[in-house]
């Protein structure tokens, strides 16, 4: 099993096909990917996209994140947006390897911290994140505001 930090120079057609053909369930909330959106995402200097494959090249999971800068002190931190493991590939270490890769990226890029959130009822994710010995675990309430068309 290995992780790959995906760049604009990689075979994005193949990766997008793998993502779209993988087995995801409702807990993943993975939408249909397209190559152009992936290219736009990767062209931003602050994005970090990680893919995890088994030794045969089968996709096991993905993660999207970005490096942010605080508006004070110029401190960098890595915000992990999503860590998704294919529903039929779970409990084999892919998520742990992805997280270890992201922690390594945060260290090498000079980030002061890595931040991510998980739903309270997502027991497998919370167990994984606890096993990686976080410095802090906070109770957070999340809010989502969907932007509606102005023509409504």
Automatic annotation (TrEMBL):
Checking CDD domains in the record gives: NAT_SF (cd04301)
What keywords were assigned to this record?
A: Transferase
Which GO molecular function terms does the record list? acyltransferase activity, transferring groups other than amino-acyl groups
Entry's Gene3D superfamilies?
3.40.630.30
SUPFAM superfamilies in UniProt: Acyl-CoA N-acyltransferases (Nat)
Chain ranges of the N-acetyltransferase domain: 1-152
Q: Which PROSITE patterns does the UniProt record give?
A: GNAT
InterPro entries from the entry?
Acyl_CoA_acyltransferase, GNAT_dom
Q: What is this protein called?
A: GNAT family N-acetyltransferase
Source organism superkingdom: Bacteria
Q: Which Pfam families match?
A: Acetyltransf_1
